[in-house]
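Complex 394.
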Amino acid sequence: MANSFDQQKALSLIRQAIHHDGQFAPLHEPRFSGRENDYLKDCIDTGWVSSVGSYVDRFEKDMATYCDVPYAIAVMNGTAALHVCLLLAGVKPGDEILIPTLTFIATANAVHYCGATPHFCDSDTSSLGINAEKLETHLNDIAEIRGDTCYNRQTGNPIRVLMPMHCFGHPSDLDALLDVANRWHIALVEDAAESLGSLYKGKPTGQHGLLSAVSFNGNKIITTGGGGIILTRDEGLAKRAKHLTTTAKQPHPYEFYHDEVGFNYRMPNLNAALGVAQLEQLDGFLAAKKHLADAYHEAFRGFGGGYIFGDADYAQSNNWLIALILDTSDLKTRNRFLEMSNAAGVMTRPVWKLMHHLKVYADCPAMDLSKAEDLEGRIINLPSSVKHGIQHDT
Ligand SMILES: *Cc1c(COP(=O)(O)O)cnc(C)c1O
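Predicted structure with pyridoxal-5'-phosphate bound:
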């Protein structure tokens, strides 16, 4: 049998790549090796711990600069950022939003919070993101443009937004997706939750859509404890984003006048202080993670049974989570390896259960999802912490 999966061999190659010392190897551990303590102490010493403070402004400014966009609005988590991005893109109850089925549930939940319905898209095996060509074919089959709005002819609902997700940090093919979105009068919003520091054709992800959302959850490449940010190039949208996420209160020295139903989605100053310190270290984290990804590629070269997922030619991933792609999509093989490696102290994880397989999203509209279904059984995430990429360098 060609390319059968030798799980003992795979485990030993992982151990080789991370220089496993026998201690438990987590999937992705945060790293606090910068000025985190100084900045947090500063918040406490000055009393500015909550939803207003200089670190919030500084973090927004630093993130905008890093991602090469004019505006960044910090919020309390990535899901809240996605929710507000969709509202600002004009999503209304009953709309359909094109998202990958291969994603973390936050992508679908943000759609649901707007009263809209996810419309699931299949995966592109060279990016793990939405397959643009297949999306185009699907829209030709089921959609039409009336006025300047795209409608699903089968459900009668508007298809308002295309929201690609840069899976594990690997950029989706944004130009191809933008081309489809533009021709069909659909807005593009990036779920860039996992891809801070990733480049698409040399430019940071998060600047290609109308709006983008980044997450700073504890397991992401940098963390604010919990947090997220909205990125945009549009000044009007940026102002609306700040307004909506701060209870829609009109500025006034003492009056409380709220001109619409807003959200208390602000990022507290404490979290922003952590974020400023983390962002100062991001280039170092990226270098370490590149080193780790290279070590994995080297270790698995010539391994029959699977390969380490690498960048498409247009992409430079932040290597947030390293993925081993098995040759077989047999779930038993995958699960046996997950059992074995976790028991051996090397943390591995399957990819998320596909959104259309979850009971809550099973009845949503979808295109053929055969590539994602095939990938589901083949993806295994491997230990990807920054520390694994730097510990043997010095
Ligand atoms: C992490 C993540 C989010 C947002 O998560 P929060 O925990 O709310 O910050 C959204 N989408 C994807 C794909 C993610 O991985």
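The longest strand covers residues 71-75.
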